[in-house]
Write a structure and sequence with these properties.
Number of domains: 1
Largest sheet: 5 strands, mixed
Radius of gyration: 13 Å
Structural class: mainly beta
Strand order of the largest sheet: 3-4-7-5-6
Shape: globular
CATH architecture: Sandwich
Order of helices and strands: EEEHEEEEHE
CATH topology: Jelly Rolls
Length: about 120
């Protein structure tokens, strides 16, 4: 699966993993040594995250059911909690620096595309 910023056409990730059950969402990126460029983790349903026990910073998107980006966090370091973003339906975790390199911001629309 691919993740595209449909507002500006930028490819956010070409290799997207989806965590849609409690166990996969809870584990998230814990135990992963790195999130490489082109990779992303989508967690849903989800309106807040933590980075406890992670080894690297990440960029984070909070997205509503209409695929609009509600809030972003750039370079979220390990051992942090995000705030609850009440209208968020899903969260996308990306390698740190991906949001700025693709010009992705709150208000943009995203699209998950099957390959």
């Amino acid at each position: 699966m691919r993740l595209i910023n449909s507002t500006n056409g930028a490819a956010l990730a070409d290799n997207v993993e989806v965590a849609s059950n409690f166990i996969k969402r809870l584990q998230g990126l814990i135990g992963v040594s790195a999130l490489n460029q082109g990779e992303a983790l989508v967690l849903y349903p989800c309106n807040c995250i933590h980075t406890f026990f992670m080894r690297f910073p990440i960029d984070v998107l909070f997205i509503n059911k209409d695929a609009a980006i509600l809030h972003t966090f750039e370079n979220m370091k390990p051992f942090r909690f995000s705030p609850i973003v009440r209208a968020s339906y899903m969260v996308v975790e990306l390698p740190a620096g991906r949001l700025s390199s693709t010009g992705t911001a709150a208000g943009n629309q995203v699209q998950l595309v099957t390959q």
